[in-house]
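In response to the reviewer comment on reproducibility (Comment 2.3), we provide here a single inverse folding case reported in full, input and output, so that an independent group could reproduce the run without further information from us. The structure tokens appear first.
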């Protein structure tokens, strides 16, 4: 494989050759020799991946015309229209790309695999993930198609694509008293603009293919299509290409990837300036449509910082399933429509692209016990090159039939032969450590899970005990008068009351709802009883409860939010922990 387009030279020292980053068992990651991580290991330096999405341009076109909004509703793009594109953290995304494996369609982290799922697409974007596949012919008369569906022919059509700036300049402003035809033209233009800027961006950065326009002839038929599944197929394909040696571009729905990373991984997660109240029509991703506080725990432009952080990540820094029942209950119906497909092991289709959706590899993201998964079905990764006139529904007939039968391939919890979920997790990790790329730059050991709790209530109560213990120790070490001591104890009592009420509410929710949508049981929570560095004790994970994340996920910050800081002076936090401490791995 030619790496000349990317390779810049060699680092000063390759990593120590006696440390094996894996995989030891090469039956799963069969493309290791072509992967970026292999080049990094031997000391080669490469250009960072260029992530292509035109978010700022898209944010300039806000639809307010009621007629256009109604057509967006019918066509399946209404809820997405409220999601603003975010500023990408290129260093974080580069570090994630180094861990993406197209053999498994997942990121390989220290504690297991994790990925962007149909579930994430539906909840974060409001795009439909259960419906007809996004596919069709690519040999249309493009000039005639534009005249029929846009009302005019664009100035330049090259290879079936047009300039996205022309769409914005021509259709953004509807004249007063516009006809129904003009409203329909504008709606199609906006959707095509969304597609070109964000969902399926072109490497040129300026054009969008008209094959998507052909699917917008009938707004209602478009509304029945699984656009979210197509977006995910495209994202998988681009991540797979970007993870290989010699590849320097990634053109995909990167706002989705960025928000997904913030939802699931604490490293680099910004603290939002406000917890935005979501309107009834907004998908969950809209809660990131706010400003961020300056981040003291992450250097946004430091690739090495993220590379090291992901190498040494602890289980407490991963939120496997951030979507609590309360959060899901407040979302529009489209975000949970066809939720059974979230756990379907099925091909994802977008014209020439076919990629496998493999939820059985990431069952922790459904609150289930992870078993050793099957190998991922190999698919033919074809391109449009030399196939401009292809009939893709016929070409991918095999995969389309599999997609049509997707509800027959929903993964379930497997019997691991042992009722102890901790044992099952450790058996999985023992297998996983043999087949994975263990690290990129910082050698680490295989983690061991020594204790496991289940359910949101368990998390809240464990964190409650840990927090109250820490605050009491702080008070005991502080020189404060009786009045201040009483005030602090009252605050602690209020805090306990609030947390117990939250635990009771969650227990009532589960009694009414059973387990979460798409889950076989409540989300597991792995906890270890270890001797830990006192300076790290305050970063024990706060469980995801209530309606939102606790920003920063630290006990100290939770205290600040609940206003239960000691009122007398400053205490050295290093004294808060002695001996053994509840600590997430």
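Designed residues, in position order:
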């Amino acid at each position: 494989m030619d790496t000349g387009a990317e390779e810049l030279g060699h680092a000063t020292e390759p990593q120590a050759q006696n440390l094996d980053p894996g995989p030891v068992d090469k039956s799963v990651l069969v493309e290791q020799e072509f992967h970026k991580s292999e080049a990094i290991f031997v000391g080669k330096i490469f250009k960072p991946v260029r992530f292509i999405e035109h978010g700022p341009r898209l944010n300039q076109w806000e639809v307010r015309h009621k007629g256009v909004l109604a057509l967006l509703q019918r066509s399946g793009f209404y809820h997405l229209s409220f999601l603003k594109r975010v500023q990408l953290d290129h260093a974080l995304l580069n570090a994630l790309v180094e861990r993406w494996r197209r053999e498994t369609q997942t990121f390989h982290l220290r504690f297991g695999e994790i990925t962007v799922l149909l579930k994430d697409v539906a909840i974060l974007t409001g795009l439909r993930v259960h419906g007809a596949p996004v596919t069709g012919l690519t040999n249309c008369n493009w000039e005639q198609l534009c005249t029929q569906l846009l009302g005019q022919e664009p100035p330049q059509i090259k290879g079936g694509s047009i300039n996205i700036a022309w769409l914005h300049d021509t259709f953004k402003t509807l004249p007063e008293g516009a006809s129904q035809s003009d409203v329909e033209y504008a709606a199609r233009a906006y959707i095509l603009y969304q597609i070109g800027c964000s969902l399926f961006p072109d490497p040129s950065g300026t054009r969008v293919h008209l094959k998507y326009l052909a699917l917008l002839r009938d707004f209602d038929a478009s509304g029945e299509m699984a656009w979210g599944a197509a977006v995910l197929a495209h994202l998988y394909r681009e991540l797979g290409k970007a993870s290989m040696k010699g590849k320097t571009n990634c053109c995909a729905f990167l706002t989705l990837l960025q928000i997904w990373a913030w939802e699931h991984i604490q490293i680099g997660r910004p603290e939002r300036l406000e917890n935005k109240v979501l309107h009834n029509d907004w998908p969950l991703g809209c809660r990131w449509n706010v400003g961020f506080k300056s981040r003291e725990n992450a250097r946004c432009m430091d690739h090495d910082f993220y590379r090291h952080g992901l190498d040494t990540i602890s289980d407490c820094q991963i939120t496997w399933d951030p979507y609590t029942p309360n959060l899901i209950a407040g979302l529009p119906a489209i975000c949970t429509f066809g939720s059974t497909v979230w756990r379907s092991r099925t091909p994802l289709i977008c014209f020439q692209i076919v990629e496998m959706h493999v939820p059985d590899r990431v069952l922790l993201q459904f609150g289930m016990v992870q078993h050793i998964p099957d190998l991922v079905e190999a698919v033919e990764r074809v391109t449009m090159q030399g196939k401009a006139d292809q009939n893709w529904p016929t070409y991918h007939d095999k995969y389309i039939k599999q997609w049509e039968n997707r509800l027959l391939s929903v993964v379930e919890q497997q019997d691991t032969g042992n009722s102890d979920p901790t044992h099952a997790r450790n058996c999985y990790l023992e297998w996983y450590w043999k087949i994975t790329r263990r690290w990129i730059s910082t050698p680490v050991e295989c983690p061991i899970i020594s204790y496991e709790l289940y359910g949101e209530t368990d998390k809240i109560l464990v964190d409650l005990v840990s927090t109250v213990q820490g605050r009491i120790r702080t008070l005991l070490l502080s020189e404060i008068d009786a009045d201040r001591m009483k005030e602090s104890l009252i605050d602690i009592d209020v805090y306990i009351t609030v947390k117990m009420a939250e635990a009771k509410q969650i227990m009532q929710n589960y009694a009414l709802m059973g387990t979460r949508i798409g889950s076989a049981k409540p989300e597991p929570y792995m906890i270890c009883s270890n001797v830990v560095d006192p300076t790290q004790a305050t970063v024990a994970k706060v469980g995801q409860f209530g309606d939102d994340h606790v920003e920063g996920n630290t006990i100290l910050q939770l205290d600040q939010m609940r206003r239960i800081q000691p009122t007398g002076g400053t205490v050295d936090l290093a004294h808060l922990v002695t001996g053994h401490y509840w600590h997430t791995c």
